[in-house]
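user: can you give me the structure for this one chain? tokens are fine.
assistant: on it. calling the predictor now.
[tool input]
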Amino acid sequence: MQLITQHSLASQLTALGVSPGDGVFVHASMRAIGPVVGGPRAVILALRAAVGEDGLIAMPGFSTDAYWPEWLDPSTLSQAERAEVEAGAPGFDVATSPTVGMGAIAELFRTWPGTLRSDHPTVSVCVHGRDAGRFVQSHSRPFACGPGTPFVSLIERPAMKVLLLGVGWNRCTALHTAETLATPRRYKVRRFKENGAWHETDDVADDLGRLFPTAGAAFEATGAVAEGPVGDAPAKLAPMAELVGFAAEFIGAANRESGDRA
């Protein structure tokens, strides 16, 4: 029986191409990685061992505390009930708002000693490692994955890479930056609660599997993506700046061809 431990995971991450001093923006499925001795904690320890003391780990900290509850249809409520729900929505708290849909590893990483989190009410980023504070010191509300956010700050870090552990390109949050930087880009209005009040800001429309998988596959075809096993999961490692630049061009071209800007 081949056991999966923090040490075997660290060795596989190194074989994949993660080096001391690297930054890795991680998207991971614990289920895909398999039965790890030590569970999610062992995965984080393996990541820390692979990047070393001078490295950096980032993960999405997306949360829903500042949103209207997705399970509750406002059209079924009276005006007074809608007001009650909006008043009752807790809003985002950088220390206590849990991640939603990011997986067990990202949720544990959020609470890991030394992890810092940006303050965006819905699409925060969690970072741990060398100079972590400078990557989360500001997070623009409009276009929350673009300029003035941790996403672009991380892209500008040397040796910053995207690491997919058992998940596809549709789960890669760096591609939200690509669609933000694409010309033309699609738009939506993001509504959230902050400081007790509800706000609306411009943002890019959700991809929902529209282009992310094909953009990722096209980038793989350039030969820039390393692939290999990490635990039981297929893993992909890509340079973040190159990925985002390529995908922004790819998504912009697709938008121009379709005329889709809404």
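assistant: here you go. Residues 6-258 form one domain. The chain has one domain: 6-258.
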